[in-house]
């Protein structure tokens, strides 16, 4: 496995700049996720590392050695795609063995046999080796495709949405298998996905890509709790984060937050208040995830009245969009609490759990999680 360095990569297709000035390092044995919406440039980056399509600018190095003019077959990368790409006329055994029978990587037959059986056992494919791809399930096909990539010792695994075709249950199971495989094999992996839960559960680090540029690189905790921009904040979470307007106002020598939506002022945690004060802003955007929105079916002191506008089941919860006089708010409630559309609901906001952004640049300023455990409320 290799340390992979990507420096200032730019790729254009005619007038479209698919990737602009991208840089990151993959540590040896790291599981690194490229995460972003459709068309963000993820596959373009992966392909350039694989040697499919040259960059217009920038450098790709494996262990310090430039790969720019090295053809794909000589880079020793192993790729796994969304559509498995198994040979339909070969058995699962032969499919897995095929990557040890290429011109560039030919192994003796006894090594091939030993490796195929070792990987088949790791991926629980032992009983299926004589079958053709059409005779196994989608999950088993995807495991065979992984197996084919794993039998070699590549510099890097490149995986492009390998679980996207699978149903939710199988995707979950395969995610766990991939994680276990990563722990066991110690592989350097670059993994492309547009599924935030997959990115968070698999990635040692995640690079969030938007319109060909990197918005943030960080651990799952960092991108979730301290998103660099409002865009990043919106990309993570079952229910999209609420971004509410906030006004900062000095009251009795302390900085308070006023939410026009609730027409109330709130105390802020000390560190949050200090950083917001230092920012010199009078207006901020306040990111509140569903967990920072409380609800009640009866009027309560400090709660804002609203009506349930839409409901969407998400797993064992339901996402409600609530209309209030000041604007819409999203929150999750347990399925057991599912209301009727147009039912009245009362909401309160825990601004200490807020993520604060500059209302002009939409960039991160502060959140309490930065200092969680180090301070209490004033
Ligand atoms: N061969 C091509 N010719 C022209 N434009 C292309 C080509 N390949 C990609 N693009 C454009 O480059 C941009 C990035 O595409 P890319 O496939 O890398 O995105 P992605 O993040 O992988 O998206 P998805 O998740 O939909 O696969 C898009 O605007 C896309 O339309």
Automatic annotation (TrEMBL):
One of its GO terms (molecular function) is ATP hydrolysis activity. The keyword Chloroplast does not apply. GO terms for cellular component: ATP-binding cassette (ABC) transporter complex, substrate-binding subunit-containing. Residues 4-236 form the ABC transporter domain. Keywords: ATP-binding, Cell membrane, Membrane, Nucleotide-binding, Sugar transport, Translocase, Transport. The keyword Mitochondrion does not apply. It comes from the Bacteria. It holds the Pfam family ABC_tran. PANTHER family: MALTODEXTRIN IMPORT ATP-BINDING PROTEIN MSMX (PTHR43875), TREHALOSE IMPORT ATP-BINDING PROTEIN SUGC (PTHR43875:SF15). This is Multiple sugar transport system ATP-binding protein. It comes from Lactonifactor longoviformis DSM 17459.
